[in-house]
Amino acid sequence: MKRTGFTLIFTVILFFMTPACTEETKYTTDPRANFEALWKLLDENYCFFDYKDIDWNEVHAKYSPLVTDTINRYELFDILGKMLAELKDGHTNLISTFNVSRFWDWSENYPDNFNSAILKNYMGTDYQIAGGLRYLILRDSIGYVYYGDFSSAVGEANLDEMFLHFKDCKALIFDVRGNGGGSLVYSERIASRFITEKRLVGYIMHKKGPGHSDFSEPYPIELEPSQRIKWMRPVAVLTNRSCYSATNDFVNKMRLFDQVTVIGDKTGGGCGLPFHSEIPNGWSVRFSSSPMLNADKEYTEYGVDPDIKQNITDNDIINGIDSIIEEAIRYLKEKTAGSTPSVESDPQQEQSGRLILSYQ
Questions:
Q1: Helices 5-21 and 184-191: angle between axes, nearest 10 degrees
Q2: How far apart are CA 181 and CA 246, in angstroms?
């Protein structure tokens, strides 16, 4: 049977990357040895050098003179962290016992377009909680769910309960603003509830040699429809620049579906599947190793554009208004005008009693 989605991705990475993890490396705290080991590890395995037009040899020439025998471990960490920041990649980190290097510029120069205090004006405290999902019914018979972390578990039963709660709603708002990512398993699990047939949702490539351009041909990633309750009524997915990694992947999938409209700001990107390794002194390093492409074989490393661009203004904040939610309500109300929600049995699962929530 052909494997799809996250199972395929995980298998590909293990198969092609595991040999690099089993190479024996002698422990040393020598600054030069660790600098060269980190530079080479990235040189042979990082996946976006060509796409981002990064001259890694030039980066070596820039930071190498800073590495001397007299620097301490904190100074070395700072140098190595700055070298990694040249990649401009939120998936790339150096991890020690005392610090984690990080690159956050992908989101810091953009408006927040999300305010948790204002969100309380819409959600209050009387909402449902199912796994990592918080949800309730807003005005105009529109369901609303906030999912703030793809590391927060969402089970199949959680999704069933949520959709049953919304069975009389005309439309759904799925808000992932501020969600920095997590597990691709949940991205796939949730997105599979919005299709009735298998869909091509993207591609993945793996490194097949040490050269910067040594990649396999793009391998298709297909999403299978869930065998449980599915939602085919209109959906607004709300986004901001802090939607990263698995959240970027989720938005990239959802935007392909006819009933889905993405509203808000451009996502933060992060389409390189991260991989973990170590340098000789025991510090861990995480970096993007396998690029994931969208269904048009395009990179989304720099984010996914919304269908409807909407910002939250300073005046909105003063007045306690989330104009991205308001725009979603306006759009969905107009989209569903004159429509009547229907609940039907899934013809492929009649004996299981599973439902498709759609329109007459």
A1: 170
A2: 4
At position 71, the amino acid (one-letter code) is: I
- Model confidence at 185: pLDDT above 90: yes
pLDDT tens digits, one per residue of 69-127: 999 999 999 999 999 999 999 999 999 999 999 998 878 888 999 999 999 999 999 99
CA gap 262, 113 in Å, rounded: 14
Beta pairing partners, 100 = 95
pLDDT of 352 higher than 80: no
Those residues whose C-beta lies under 8 Å from the C-beta of residue 40, and which sit 6 or more positions away, are none
DSSP β-bridge partners for residue 244: 269
Nearest-angstrom CA–CA distance, 157 and 160:
5
Q: For residue 222, how many other CB atoms are within 10 A of its CB?
A: 14
Q: What are the pLDDT digits (tens) for 308-328?
A: 999 999 999 999 999 999 999
Q: What is the DSSP string of 85-139?
A: HTT--TT-EEE-SS-B----HHHHTS-----HHHHHHHH-S--EEETTEEEEEEG
* DSSP code string of 136-149: EEEGGGEEEEEE--
- 174, pLDDT greater than 50: yes
Longest dimension (CA), the chain: 75
Looking at the predicted structure, is the pLDDT value of residue 54 above 70? yes
Main-chain phi, psi angles of 288, to 5 degrees = -75, 125
Q: Are strands 199-204 and 171-175 parallel, antiparallel or unpaired?
A: unpaired
